[in-house]
UniProtKB/TrEMBL annotation:
Superkingdom of the source species: Bacteria
Species lineage: Bacteria, Pseudomonadati, Pseudomonadota, Gammaproteobacteria, Alteromonadales
Catalysis: reaction(s): a quinone + sn-glycerol 3-phosphate = dihydroxyacetone phosphate + a quinol
UniProt record similarity statement: Belongs to the FAD-dependent glycerol-3-phosphate dehydrogenase family.
Broad enzyme group: oxidoreductase
Coiled coil: none
Name of protein: Glycerol-3-phosphate dehydrogenase
EC numbers: 1.1.5.3
FAD dependent oxidoreductase domain sequence ranges: 12-330
Keyword tags: FAD, Flavoprotein, Oxidoreductase
Residues in Alpha-glycerophosphate oxidase C-terminal domain copies: 387-487
Cofactor(s), by name: FAD
NCBIfam families registered for this protein in UniProt: PRK12266.1 (NF008899), PRK13369.1 (NF009906)
Length: 512
């Protein structure tokens, strides 16, 4: 990427922040005919967007806080997304073990009835009540479960696919590029961007979209002469991953004595994902990590419900994300709204600022559509909203099983388990690195657990992967499977293939 003429570049929209909201806005705006650039100071989805519970859900528990608009929008959106991205999203059945002393059965039934009724369900079955058997992974004193449907999403890949789609629509995506300053000059924003190697360049923009997530408020301090009345509250949510607690496909939603809920979700075949917590957070969002208290809290909830008991030694990985939530007076961390606010400042022909506060993964597409609807009031030539029906890159197929069949017949030398992983990570995008290959040898070195060089090269060349962490935690989940020496070898390979960013990679391996 040369930045020679960048100093002359003028765009309609500069999006700051490469999380799910930022890439969603970039895609929507670019598809309406606006010229778009997006800058992200780290990796795409590198903060909050890759640290979620990986659910596309209406938010059953938000009904208790009377958030009907949010739940209804999220439930409708669930179906839209499952259609748009069958590779990285799929339906999931949830079981809610009933504990009489926590929430009475009538309350849960009413909640689930409303959940079913608020949804326009095409793909997902209704909720029901079931009795547990001795086969159940739950402790024997739990005899009843309520079952309902929601969806699963690979959150980090969702971000990358939206960025790829935005790029296909003409957007320029600058990763590892920070917006250091922006000021109004004549009728444009004059924005200074700085790459991770320390090079700076300027972009002129008619509008700036502040999609900086947990940094949305602090980012406003870099805009010259902009004041901000909005208060955000940082809430940390932590998860950990353990070897799988049971062999079946469903997820569990566990109620705790404090009224909170914890999810246990089948993860990457051999594991269970457990989370999340809600703790107020101060400090740099990129340094958030699970605390001893959170770890004990989650272990305790799991051990209360499951026959299989876990200890700290079982944890193979943990991660924490910071949710930037809209401040409400006297609300506890778990009561804060998951709704979002989109705020436009400025008018046509003047430098415009659009701020995005809050939001959740499930409603990212709707949030982006609302945001761009507001933005285009300043761009009279822009086209109409368009993202609802269009599949995300690699998603133009009907179901994973038939794609796996197609892959194994076209590439018979490919192990079925690898074909299955390609189907659920890349969908049709895996043809970008499989087409033309006739044997496993041609895939190149196996860095471990079936992560071949051809795939790694694709991630570097096409999906903005620059570091070990980008590859093994965000583009894939091979961090769960590669040992230290395999990770070191892979990191060295990535470094040797990325010119100029080696200092970043080395720093990261040293800290790994």
């Amino acid at each position: 990427m040369s930045h020679n003429n960048e100093s002359e570049k003028t765009v309609d929209v500069l999006v700051v922040g490469g999380g799910v909201n930022g890439v969603g806005v970039a895609l929507d705006a670019a598809g309406r005919g606006l010229s778009v650039a997006l800058c992200e100071k780290g990796d795409l989805g590198g903060a909050t967007s890759s640290s979620s519970s990986k659910l596309i859900h209406g938010g059953l528990r938000y009904l208790e806080h009377y958030e009907f608009r949010l739940v209804k929008e999220a439930l409708a959106e669930r179906e839209v997304l499952l259609k748009k991205a069958p590779h990285i999203m799929w339906p999931l059945r949830f079981r809610l073990p009933h504990q009489k002393h926590l929430r009475p059965a009538w309350m849960i039934r009413i909640g689930l009835f409303m959940y079913d009724s608020l949804a326009k369900r095409n793909m997902l079955p209704r909720s029901r009540k079931l009795s547990t058997t001795s086969e159940s992974p739950l402790v024997s004193n739990i005899t009843t479960c309520f079952e309902y449907s929601d969806g699963w999403v690979d959150d980090a890949r969702l971000v990358v696919l939206n960025a790829l789609a935005a790029q296909d629509q003409g957007a320029e995506i600058y990763t590892r590029t920070e917006c250091v300053k922006a000021e109004k000059q004549d009728n444009l924003w004059n924005v200074e961007l700085k790459t991770v190697q320390g090079k700076t360049f300027t972009v002129k923009a008619k509008s700036i979209v502040n999609a900086a997530g947990p940094w949305a408020v602090s980012f406003l301090d870099r805009l010259v002469n902009v004041n901000n009345p909005n208060a955000m509250r940082m809430v940390k949510g932590s998860h950990f991953i353990v070897p799988k607690l049971y062999d079946t496909e469903e997820a569990y939603i566990l109620q705790n004595k404090d009224g909170r809920i914890v999810f246990v979700i089948p993860y990457e075949g051999d594991f269970s994902l457990v989370g999340t917590t809600d703790e107020d957070y101060k400090g740099n969002p990129s340094e958030a990590a699970i605390s001893e208290e959170e770890t004990d809290y989650l272990i305790d909830v799991v051990n209360t419900y499951f026959k299989t008991k876990i200890t700290q030694d079982d944890i193979v990985h943990s991660y924490s994300g910071v949710r930037p939530l809209l401040e409400e007076k006297n609300a506890s961390a778990q009561e804060l709204t998951r709704d979002y606010k989109v705020e436009l400042k400025g008018e046509t022909g003047k430098p415009v600022l659009l701020n995005i506060f809050g939001g959740k993964i499930t409603t990212y597409r709707k949030l982006a559509e609302h945001a761009v609807d507001k933005l285009v009031t300043c761009f009279p030539k822009a086209k109409k909203a368009w993202t609802k029906e269009v599949p995300l890159p690699g998603g133009a197929f009907t179901d994973q099983a038939s794609l796996v069949k197609k892959l194994t017949s076209e590439f018979p030398w490919l192990d079925k388990s690898i074909a299955e992983r390609y189907a659920r990570q890349y969908g049709l995008l895996c043809y970008k690195f499989l087409t033309g290959l006739t044997s496993l040898e041609e895939m190149g070195e196996d860095f471990g657990a079936g992560l071949y060089r051809a795939e790694v090269d694709y991630l570097i060349d096409w999906e903005w992967a620059c570091t070990l962490e980008d590859v093994i935690w965000r583009r894939t989940k091979h961090g769960l499977r590669l040992d230290k020496s395999q990770q070191t070898a892979l990191a060295q390979y990535i470094t040797s293939n990325i010119n100029g960013t080696s200092d970043v990679v080395n720093a990261e391996v040293a800290s790994a």
